[in-house]
């Protein structure tokens, strides 16, 4: 059996990514794909980009990776841009929208948020019809390939798997900013990689404990803007935009 590790929403959190990569290495997995949002909210977007370029066989663009490269007057975004530098910003600008491959006779498609764009959000409790739309070809995904049987995405920072007869939708959760459980989250696909022949296939959602207080200390040491809500999110897995 072949194994593919899928990580997403790293958000500048070095301790979380290091713990996740250590677990991937322990499982002897060498093929890693990243579903975007390498940068913000945490302090080390620059190091995360460098690490992903070293270890990931493919990376798609997330919403943060998209708007971080644009001109802005927002102080928080400018702070992250300055630490990334021109070369890394250009790398983010060139990231593709999707990764497609065959595994155990299934067409697998990976993207950050949805088949529509990096900003069109699909939540776990959305209607079935909205979930099924994730399997369609669009201008964003490209229209010249078969529609997928399996779709994996990130963006919502909450991991789940849903089955619709032969179609499977899964979310890998977030490595650096999980909003369901206070542990880093990623997925492992098991099957015959690059094979169109039907074979055994499985999806595993993995949780990895990491040093949350170290991640918070690193952000504090960098005098990172919006530090307090970031620290609270890491400690509680509760999104800062939710009403108390």
What coarse outline follows from CA principal-axis ratios?
globular
CATH class: Alpha Beta
Q: How many E strands? A: 10
Q: What share of the residues lie within helices? A: 25-40%
Beta-strand content bin: 15-25%
CATH topology: Purple Acid Phosphatase, chain A, domain 2
Q: Name the CATH superfamily classification.
A: Metallo-dependent phosphatases
Q: Give me the secondary-structure category.
A: alpha/beta
Reported for the largest beta sheet, the result is: 5 strands, mixed
Low-confidence stretches: none
Tell me the series of helices and strands, N- to C-terminal. Answer: EHEHEHHEEHEEEEEHH
| Overall domain count | 1
Within the largest sheet, what's the order of strands?
3-2-1-9-10
CATH architecture: 4-Layer Sandwich
Protein name: Serine/threonine protein phosphatase
GO cellular component, one term: cytoplasm
Family: Belongs to the metallophosphoesterase superfamily. YfcE family.
GO molecular function, one term: phosphatase activity
